[in-house]
Design a protein that fits this description.
single chain, alpha/beta, Rossmann fold, Arc Repressor Mutant, subunit A, nine-stranded mixed sheet, 12 helices, 17 strands, 21% strand
Length: 413
C-alpha cells in the first residue's frame, strides 16, 4: 500500500491550479452570450425581484410565453425561440390557467412551454432534477422559478446570512453555463426604499453577488406604470426600462428608456398645468402645482423652451404654452392688421380676474384672443381708448399687466 493511501482525503494536497496566458485567451474563439430576451435576460442565473402583488409573476410568465412562441417580449424586444419551463410553486392549476388565458388572449398555447407546480429544493434533489430535465430537452432557453423561497436550501446551523444567501443559488450556475439556459428566479423586495433599486432586494448582498444578474420591478400600488432595472455580468450597461401594465391582456408593455419616459411625463404635466392656468407661470408656481422640485422644473422648462414647447417671457421668467411652436401672436398682435377680440382684466382687488395675483396678462386658450388690461381709475370711454391704442400699437398679447399699468399711470398711453 502506498503512503498516500493512508492520508485522509481532507489532508491531501489539492491539484495545482491551471493557468492560461492572456495571449492564449485572446486567440481562443468563444461562443457569444445567448440571450433569452435581447438585452434583458441572458443565459445564467438572474433574480427578478418586486414587491408582492405588483406584477412580477405576470412578467415572468409573460416572458416564458414570449420565448416559447419566439415572439417579442414586452411587446417590442426580440425573444429567442426555445423551450421554456415555468415552475409555479406558489400557484394552482386553476390560477395558472386563468392567467395564461388572459396573456394568450385567445391564441393557442405555444409549443415547448411546460409547467410544474412542485419541485424539490436544490439541496434535496432539485439540482439533479433540473439537469435531467435539460438533458432530455436541450432546446430549453428559459426556466422560471417562482419563487426562490420554495427551492432554496433550508438554513443550516449558525452560518452567516451572507454565506447562506451567496450559496443559495450557487448550484444553478454550472447548470446554466453547461446548457446555455437562462434561469430566472422570482424573489421579493424589502419594504424600505433605497437609492439603488438593487439594494432593495430582500436578503443580504450575498444573494445578488452569487448570481449572474438581477432585474428589479418597481411599481407604485394602483399605478399602471413601472420601471424595470437591469444589471448583470453580461449586461454591458445597466439600464432602466419604463413599462406599462395593460389590464386587458394582463401583460407588461415596453414604453422606452425609463429616464426619457419620466421626463416626457413631467413635460406633459407642465404643459397641462400651463393650459389649465391660462396664464404665464413662474417656475416656482409650476413646481408647486405639479409637486416637483423647483430646480428640476426649471431645468425641464429650459429644455422645453429650446424645443419650442413653451415661450419664456421677462428677465424674471414666466412661461406660457405654445401649441405647435406658435406663441399665439401671429395674426393676433395687431401688426398684421388682424384685431382679435379683447379679454378685459381689471386691477380691482378681489374681482377674480387677476388669475395669478401678479397682474400678468394672459392668453385665452379657447379664443386665442388679445389680452388687455384696464384700470378701475379710468372711465369706460378712457378704457376703450386705451384698449384701442394698445391694439393699434401692436402690443403683444402676453405683455405683462404691471408694465401696461405703469405706462398708463405715467401718461405714456
Amino acid at each position: 500500500m502506498r503512503y498516500e493511501d493512508d492520508i485522509p482525503p481532507e489532508w491531501r494536497r489539492s491539484p495545482a491550479p491551471t493557468t492560461m496566458s492572456a495571449a492564449e485567451l485572446m486567440d481562443k474563439e468563444l461562443a457569444p452570450v445567448r440571450w433569452a430576451v435581447s438585452g434583458v435576460l441572458p443565459e445564467g442565473v438572474t433574480i427578478l425581484a418586486g414587491k408582492p402583488k405588483m406584477g412580477k409573476s405576470w412578467l415572468a410568465l409573460g416572458l416564458c410565453v414570449s420565448v416559447a412562441a419566439g415572439g417579442r417580449a414586452l411587446g417590442k424586444i426580440p425573444a429567442q425561440c426555445g423551450g421554456t419551463l415555468y415552475l409555479g410553486l406558489e400557484d394552482q392549476e386553476r390560477r395558472l390557467q386563468r392567467r395564461l388565458k388572459k396573456i394568450l388572449a385567445g391564441r393557442a398555447a405555444p409549443d415547448g412551454m411546460e409547467i410544474a407546480w412542485s419541485w424539490p429544493r436544490l439541496d434535496e434533489g432539485g439540482v439533479e432534477a433540473l439537469r435531467d430535465y435539460l438533458q432530455q430537452r436541450p432546446d430549453t432557453r428559459l426556466i422560471v422559478i417562482d419563487t426562490l423561497k420554495k427551492i432554496r436550501p433550508r438554513d443550516s446551523g449558525s452560518r452567516g446570512i451572507y454565506d447562506l444567501d451567496y450559496e443559495a443559488l450557487e448550484p444553478l450556475l454550472p447548470i446554466a453555463a453547461e446548457f446555455g439556459v437562462a434561469i430566472l428566479v422570482v424573489h421579493h423586495l424589502r419594504k424600505l426604499e433605497a437609492g439603488d433599486p438593487f439594494d432593495m432586494i430582500s436578503g443580504s448582498t450575498g444573494l445578488t453577488g452569487g448570481v449572474d444578474g438581477a432585474l428589479v420591478l418597481k411599481r407604485d400600488r394602483g399605478k399602471q406604470d413601472a420601471t424595470l432595472a437591469i444589471d448583470g455580468r453580461d449586461v454591458e450597461e445597466p439600464a432602466e426600462l419604463a413599462l406599462r401594465w395593460d389590464a386587458d391582456i394582463a401583460s407588461w408593455s415596453l414604453m422606452g428608456d425609463a429616464e426619457e419616459f419620466r421626463i416626457s411625463n413631467e413635460r406633459r404635466e407642465i404643459l397641462d398645468t400651463l393650459i389649465r392656468a391660462g396664464v404665464p407661470l413662474a417656475p416656482k408656481e409650476i413646481a408647486e402645482r405639479i409637486e416637483k422640485a423647483d430646480g428640476n422644473v426649471r431645468k425641464l422648462l429650459h429644455g422645453m423652451r429650446d424645443d419650442g414647447q413653451v415661450v419664456q417671457r421677462g428677465t424674471h421668467p414666466r412661461y406660457k404654452y405654445t401649441p405647435n411652436g406658435n406663441d399665439g401672436n401671429d395674426g393676433n398682435d395687431g401688426s398684421a392688421g388682424n384685431v382679435g377680440n379683447v379679454t378685459v382684466v381689471t386691477d380691482t382687488p378681489g374681482d377674480g380676474n387677476d388669475r395669478n395675483r401678479e397682474n400678468s396678462a394672459y392668453l385665452s386658450q379657447k379664443e386665442r384672443n388679445v389680452t388687455v388690461v384696464t384700470s378701475r381709475h379710468l372711465s369706460s370711454d378712457e378704457q376703450n381708448e386705451r384698449v384701442q391704442r394698445l391694439i393699434e400699437e401692436g402690443m403683444r398679447e402676453d405683455f405683462a399687466v404691471a408694465e401696461v399699468m405703469k405706462k398708463m399711470k405715467g401718461g405714456e398711453l
